[in-house]
């Protein structure tokens, strides 16, 4: 029952996040205003709901022994370290949308599982926002998107296991399991692709939170009453014109960091996992 309740909490959190992003499209009137004003009234409620559900999920899993106290301690340490990376990013501005915070979220989710990854992504953006002063209506939407990065990273071991069975010498992983030893070339390749895709997808998702409020060219803005196809076409035009180049830098930066730090980081995380005997289970188990 506790395990089912825990999964239900994560599903509910994701559902709330999706609803928070898309509900403006169901309004009959089009709100206008600056990006900073968008969702100014509902953002505190969304933040409180996400943080509250995340804390409840931790308590439920601790009671059900799905995770140990050491797991929670490791989560806190990783959130703190990754938040400091974002402080460095603010102190020393990076080109485009490059940020060093996403790769630790991806690698932690990959090693410790989806639920751990979701919590790390959400709490990292919350804590780093408080540290860097990046608190605003956009924060809960950044938390949801970063949480989804970590959550989906926890699905990658299943993909790695499948790829290891592909009868191709280039893709085949030697008979070692995905989580048992250091990162293998195939794992790093998959993590690079994953980081690149999410480098673009993160920006595309975040833009949705303010796009219904944006003003500009008709071909790039949302208007009540238009069909789904027209919405997608207009948003694609808006994204390419305003965000694609910025997000491409983030995507390439993710790949570079995975190539540079992926192997030693995965090895270190797995070493901690074995030493502390974590019992984190993947989201789909």
Could you please describe the fold and organization of this structure?
The chain is an all-alpha fold and 285 residues long. It has one domain: Orthogonal Bundle (Arp2/3 complex 21 kDa subunit ARPC3), CATH 1.10.1760. The chain has helices at residues 2-22, 43-63, 69-91, 102-112, 114-132, 139-153, 156-163, 185-208, 228-242, 244-276. α1 (2-22) runs antiparallel to α2 and α3 (69-91) crosses α5. The protein is globular and about 55 Å long. The model is unreliable at 169-182 and 278-285 (pLDDT under 50).
Instruction: Give the rounded overall mean pLDDT.
Output: 82
Q: Which descriptor suits the 3D outline?
A: globular
- C-alpha-based Rg, rounded: 19 Å
* CATH class category name: Mainly Alpha
Q: In whole angstroms, how far apart are the ends?
A: 15 Å
Number of DSSP-assigned strands: 0
Order of helices and strands: HHHHHHHHHH
Ranges with pLDDT <50 over ≥5 residues? 169-182, 278-285
- In helices, the fraction of residues equals 55-70%
Indicate the proportion of strand residues.
under 5%
The number of domains: 1
Largest sheet: none
Can you tell me the CATH topology?
Arp2/3 complex 21 kDa subunit ARPC3
CATH architecture: Orthogonal Bundle
Name the structural class. mainly alpha
């Amino acid at each position: 029952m506790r395990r089912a309740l825990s999964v239900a909490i994560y599903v509910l959190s994701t559902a709330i996040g999706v609803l928070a992003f898309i509900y403006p499209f169901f309004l009959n009137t089009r709100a206008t205003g600056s990006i900073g004003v968008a969702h100014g009234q509902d953002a505190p409620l969304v933040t409180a709901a996400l943080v509250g559900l995340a804390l409840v999920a931790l308590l439920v899993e601790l009671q059900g022994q799905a995770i140990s106290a050491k797991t929670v301690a490791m989560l806190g340490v990783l959130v703190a370290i990754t938040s400091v990376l974002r402080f460095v990013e603010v102190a020393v501005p990076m080109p485009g949308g490059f940020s060093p915070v996403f790769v630790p979220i991806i690698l932690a989710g990959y090693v410790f599982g989806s639920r751990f990854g979701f919590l790390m992504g959400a709490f990292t953006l919350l804590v780093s926002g408080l540290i860097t002063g990046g608190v605003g209506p956009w924060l809960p939407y950044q938390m949801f998107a970063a949480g989804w990065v970590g959550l989906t990273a926890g699905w990658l071991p299943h993909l790695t296991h499948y790829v290891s069975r592909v009868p191709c010498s280039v893709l085949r992983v030697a008979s070692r399991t995905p989580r048992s030893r250091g990162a293998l070339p195939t794992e790093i390749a998959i993590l690079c692709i994953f980081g690149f895709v999410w480098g673009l997808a993160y920006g595309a998702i975040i833009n949705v939170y303010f796009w219904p409020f944006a003003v500009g060219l008709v071909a790039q803005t949302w208007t009540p009453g238009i069909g789904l196809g027209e919405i997608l076409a207009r948003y694609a035009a808006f994204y390419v014109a305003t965000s694609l180049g910025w997000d491409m830098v983030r995507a390439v930066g993710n790949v570079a960091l995975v190539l540079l730090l992926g192997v030693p980081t995965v090895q270190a995380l797995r070493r901690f996992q074995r030493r502390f005997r974590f019992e984190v289970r993947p989201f789909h188990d």
